[in-house]
Design a protein that fits this description.
By secondary structure, this protein is α+β, with helices and mostly antiparallel strands.
Length: about 230
């Protein structure tokens, strides 16, 4: 509960500053690129308006750096730096389709949701995954424990992993549940780079067992159980 209060305060800071008339801008310093979109949405969920977020990514930093004559708005004569998405950029399911950097086009593939598998006896009811879960994963360096929080609904889940021994949380992505099997991925810093960890968990009632695969670093057993609602 204390951690949740701390996170709420953290994601509300920008709103407090904006309402006080303090100019704010965002960067990706010390942030994993896959966490950016989710973090922005969390700030919006905690009261920051989408227009303020957009300004904090464009016009405000351009003015702070003294380069607003060249960048920050879509205006004739300015650099052609544009992001084109499949919907409103801050929407949950929106994906980046095209990026222009000084007029050069970069194209991105759209990730499609997997079709839910059906068993021979019909569609299998998915396990209840929304909520808070404790976990413990066995690694060569010893057991690592923490909390996994999952919100949302079928096909549109969000999640965060909070290690007990670290202050930084990791945003989960590619969250999917088929029957009683939950899969998702996360990124973490390792040896100066980014390491992707893929999870596959089998849920039985209010507990789970499974594996956390970290590529060449190995695959490790993980167990956990649902935490009671606070």
């Amino acid at each position: 509960e204390r951690r949740q209060e701390s996170l709420l305060q953290h994601y509300s800071q920008a709103t407090v500053l904006a309402e006080a008339g303090v100019p704010i801008s965002f960067s990706m310093l010390n942030m994993k690129s896959k966490d950016f979109h989710a973090n922005v949405r969390k700030m919006i969920e905690n009261g920051l308006s989408p227009d303020t977020v957009l300004a904090a990514l464009t016009t405000v930093p351009a003015k702070m750096l003294g380069v607003d004559k060249y960048i920050g708005t879509v205006t004739a004569g300015k650099m052609a730096n544009l992001v084109i998405s499949t919907g409103r950029y801050f929407a949950e399911k929106s994906q980046v389709r095209y990026v222009f950097v000084e007029g050069v086009l970069y194209e991105y593939e759209i990730k499609k949701k997997k079709d839910k598998k059906k068993s021979s006896g019909g569609s299998e009811k998915p396990a209840r995954i929304v909520g808070n879960w404790s976990f413990e994963v066995e690694t060569p360096g010893g057991a690592q424990a923490g909390t996994i929080t999952i919100t949302g609904d079928d096909g549109d889940f969000q999640g965060t992993l909070y290690p007990d021994d670290e202050e930084d949380e990791s945003v989960l992505y590619d969250i999917d549940v088929e029957g009683n099997v939950l899969t998702f991925s996360m990124d973490m810093e390792a040896d100066g780079g980014s390491l992707t960890i893929e999870f596959e968990l089998t849920i039985e009632d209010d507990s789970f067992t499974g594996e956390a695969s970290a590529g060449e670093a190995g695959t490790f057993p993980i167990t956990g159980e649902r935490l009671p609602k606070s």
